[in-house]
Design goal:
heterodimer, A: about 425 residues, alpha+beta, Cytochrome p450, 5-stranded mixed sheet, 15 helices, B: about 100 residues, Ubiquitin-like (UB roll), globular
Chain lengths: ~425, ~100
């Protein structure tokens, strides 16, 4: 295990199956994961790895198998965690993404309202205006980092907009989000120990609790996620249950951050790799919504989610034992030749383009999907209006994290019309 | 021949002929009836073809997967169904389907 030299892909086709390490985030950092998952899909689609920094786990890599497990929530539970790491007993946050029905359904319905399309319309104009301002500020004819100046900045401003978070403190939102997913055990040691994450969770909860109390009954006619929770009878007292309040805040912050941010970066990379598709969307901006779905498939910003077997079960020719971790590799399902036509092509007019697994499937399918799509559509509508060229001028640098597929740096140059 | 009437959220109506073997979701897409997203393409795993059955003859009850997905809808009603799970059969009575304000 763990034989991969930094930056260099192991020879996945030559290693014995038992030597494949599916827990090493460097496969995403150095972008050599394609051949690993292609081998697993072909030879060991339900695959057991006995040792990893996150313990033993199964990997499920075919599209159809992932969907089958997502449907079977009684046998493949989302509790106690949807991350490969188990929650620490000192702080078990309650979030519905890591609950099963019926409790899951009640909590999700309540929070779902806040990102319902009816509410999104309220935010659209403001998001568009802030997106336009960010793009108007970009330097012309010189290289800049798209991750910092566009993807990070925009997602931070959008999150601050959605929470009506104090503007001057908005970078805390992104810093917290990064911290929550930065456990050293899923980042090849580059992240932080669990205790540091807990300190940040405490800070975040404290600030959001203050905001809740400031806003409660202040009589203002305003519209933000905190006030929406306060207005809904099902969540009106959520602040009294800090583990639930913090769980939902974390879900909204993380869910609305890395995912959209990295899809904003990925789009630039793909449109540069496939210039014919850039030409297509420029000729027909009506293709932007379809392109956005294809960007989300191609990027798969959350490469996996984890389930836990509630009983011994035979699946895909394997015997999964009660309590085993079962990791669903969306990133593999999204590139499964058996389910996706020409999966390695970035194809903005793809039939059934929304049928990807990046949002998951079944009852835990991403609740913020329409918001994410709206943000990405606005970005590309505004960017294609302004920029004659959006050119990748250097090698992208990628995130070293098993749970996040993304970019840390993207050198880009733009020219305006 | 089963006639399917789709009623939009704004009240406008559209009547189309349903093909035996097709789902209500496929029928809507075939005739460019707006209001149904059908992200997953018919597997009852996305919930974006939610609709309300206003008038119908006997139709099979939802299975457990469809029931689970319907359970997530904040706007669920007694007559909520996923359009992808209702397949038009021979001699099926005409059916009237109301679409929600939005899919999510």
């Amino acid at each position: 295990m763990n034989m991969s030299a930094v930056g260099k892909a192991p020879d996945y086709s030559a290693l014995p199956l038992s030597d494949l390490d599916i827990s090493d985030p460097r496969m995403f950092q150095f972008d050599y994961w394609h051949s690993l998952f292609a081998r697993l899909r072909a030879e060991s689609p339900v695959h057991f790895q006995p040792n990893s920094p996150a313990g033993p786990f199964w990997s499920v890599t075919r599209y159809e198998d992932i969907v089958a497990i997502e449907r079977n929530t009684q046998v493949f539970s989302s509790e106690p965690s949807i991350a490969i790491l188990d929650p620490e007993p000192d702080m078990i946050l309650k979030m519905f993404i890591a609950m099963d029905p019926p409790e899951h359904d009640d909590q999700r319905r309540a929070v779902h309202q806040v990102v319902a399309p009816r509410n999104l319309k309220e935010f659209e104009a403001l998001i568009r205006q802030r997106t336009a301002a960010v793009l108007d500020e970009l330097p012309e004819n010189e290289s800049f980092d798209w991750v910092t100046l566009v993807s990070r900045d925009l997602t931070t401003k959008m999150l601050a907009t959605l929470f009506d978070y104090p503007w001057e403190e908005r970078n805390n939102l992104t810093a917290w989000s990064d911290m929550f997913t930065n456990d050293e055990r899923i980042t090849a040691g580059e992240g932080v120990p669990r205790e540091v994450i807990v300190e940040h969770i405490t800070d975040c909860l404290q600030r959001f609790t203050e905001l809740w109390h400031e806003r409660k009954d202040d009589g203002k006619e305003a519209f933000d996620l905190i006030r929406m929770l306060q207005a809904d009878p099902n969540t009106a007292n959520m602040v009294d249950d800090p583990l639930t309040y913090m769980g939902n805040i974390m879900l909204l912050i993380v869910g609305g951050n890395d995912t959209t941010r990295n899809s904003m970066s990925g789009g630039v990379v793909f449109l540069n790799q496939f210039p014919d598709q850039m030409a297509k969307v420029r000729a027909s901006p009506a293709l932007i919504p379809s392109m956005v779905s294809e960007i989300i498939r191609f990027q798969t910003p959350l490469p996996h989610m984890r389930r836990t077997a509630t009983r011994d079960v035979a699946f895909g020719g394997q015997q999964i034992a009660k309590g085993d971790k079962v990791v669903l590799w969306y990133v593999s399902g999204n590139y499964d030749e058996a389910a996706v036509e020409r999966p390695n092509d970035f194809w903005i007019e793809r039939p059934n383009v929304r049928g990807h697994l990046s949002f998951g499937a079944g009852i835990h399918r991403c609740m913020g999907n329409r918001l994410a799509e709206m943000q990405l559509c606005i970005l590309w509508e505004e960017a294609l209006k302004r920029f004659r060229t959006i050119e990748l001028v250097g090698e992208p640098e990628r995130t070293c994290n098993l749970f996040i597929r993304g970019f840390t740096r993207l050198p880009v140059r733009v020219t305006r019309f | 021949m089963t006639v399917v009437t789709f009623v939009q959220h704004d009240g406008s109506e559209r009547m189309v002929d349903g093909d035996v073997g097709s789902s209500l979701m496929e029928t809507a897409l075939k005739h460019d009836v707006p209001g149904i997203d059908a992200d997953c393409g018919g597997g009852a795993i996305c919930g974006t073809c939610h609709c309300f059955i206003e008038v119908s003859g006997d139709i099979p009850a939802p299975d457990s997967q469809e029931t689970a997905m319907l359970g997530l809808r904040p706007d669920r009603a007694e007559n909520s169904r996923l359009a992808c799970q209702i397949i038009i059969s021979e001699r099926m009575a005409d059916i009237k389907v109301r679409l929600p304000e939005f899919q999510m």
